[in-house]
Amino acid sequence: MELDLFGVTKALGGLPAAARAMLSAGAVGIADSRVANLERIKKSGIGAPLMLLRSPTTGECRRAAAVADIILVSALPCIREIARVLEKMGLRREVRLIPMVEMGDRREGILPELLNDVVKALDKLPGVRIQGLAANFACLAGAIPTPEKIRYLEELARGLEGEYGSGLVLSAGNSSSLGLVFEGKWPRLSYPAHLRVGESILLGWDIMTKKPLPGMRQDAFRFYAEVIEVAKKPSLPEGPVGCNAFAETVEPVDRGCHWRAVAAVGRQDIGAGSLMPLDPGIEVIGITSDHTVLAIDNAQTPIAVGTQLEFRLDYGGLLGAMTSPYVGKLIKE
């Protein structure tokens, strides 16, 4: 079975140190959804193949064509614009395009019944060629990758052989597809394939189950926040209650009067992600723009103003922290 891996750096803002680590561990190339991140990686001297995961906007096509070796695409106007800017720039390099096929997650992707029309139109454009087909899973609707869906992608690619011969590749999924590999359910394919893997490399878990993957580490990233208040307070709000600052209706747990800590971290730091205290006796009660409120009655060590608390992050939290200008980063290579 030929199954390669492109390391995805988008959660780290295209961090060159992470790209180098992925390549040294066996990744055949680096993928990112942002043109600026690919430019950062290329500028750092990394010469591996670079893949742009998200179709560039009209204003990004020129930069995308100059930096990306492979671009995932899903709409003809974007494809035509890439071909136009390549011709206008007079670039001799060939940009390989991989159409994304809609496989049930209902994000980007060409409906299978429209694929042939898009491919025929693309084939008439100068400077670009199809390298294969791509699929995406478990990002928007949570559609789970299955052997049957992977084989269906292969079947669609087989229908293109008359135009492109057998030199096609299947960009057959993301981190969510790794479960099929580890469980021995990955189908035997007649085309070389690769997976675009970011979260599972960075956090070391199966993204569908959040369980650790064999041989992977879960401590590559840690988040530290300082405590700025400690007080004993009632757990329930006082007076009439409406929605909070994020238009959410909160149902607080009645803990009576208990010890709380406020940490200097909020949504501006971790986006829509979650913090998970390493101390199992600490519980996150809520997060606002700049504050995180914690229940500390069962904390294993004393907590005071100035205490540095250590947290794990989920993928959303990692993405937010690594791209937030308010979070300092300490990188150990």
> Strand order, biggest sheet?
1-2-3-4-5-7-8-9
Give the CATH H-level superfamily of the largest domain: Alanine racemase
The major sheet is characterized as: 8 strands, parallel, barrel
Distance between the termini: 32 Å
Q: How much of the polypeptide forms β-strand, as a percent range?
A: 15-25%
Structural class comes to: alpha/beta
Enumerate the spans where pLDDT stays under 50 for 5 or more consecutive residues.
none
Q: What is the quaternary state of this protein?
A: single chain
Mean pLDDT: 94
Report the top-level CATH class of the largest domain: Alpha Beta
Structural domain tally:
2
Rg measurement, Å? 23 Å
The total strand number stands at 15
**Total helix count?**
11
The CATH topology of the largest domain is TIM Barrel
CATH architecture identity of the largest domain: Alpha-Beta Barrel
Sequence of secondary-structure elements: EHEHEHEHEHEEHHEHEHEEHEEEEH
> What's the helical proportion of residues?
25-40%
Broad shape: elongated
Mind explaining what this structure looks like?
By secondary structure, this protein is an alpha/beta fold. The protein has helices at residues 16-24, 35-43, 61-67, 76-89, 115-123, 147-158, 161-164, 178-182, 199-203, 267-270, 315-323, and strands spanning 3-8, 29-32, 50-52, 70-73, 95-101, 128-130, 132-135, 169-174, 193-197, 223-234, 257-263, 275-277, 283-287, 292-295, 308-313. It folds into 2 domains: 3-203, TIM Barrel, CATH 3.20.20; 223-323, no CATH class. The strands form 2 sheets. It has an 8-stranded parallel β-barrel with strand order 1-2-3-4-5-7-8-9, surrounded by 5 helices. Helix 3 crosses helix 4 (76-89). The mean pLDDT is 94.
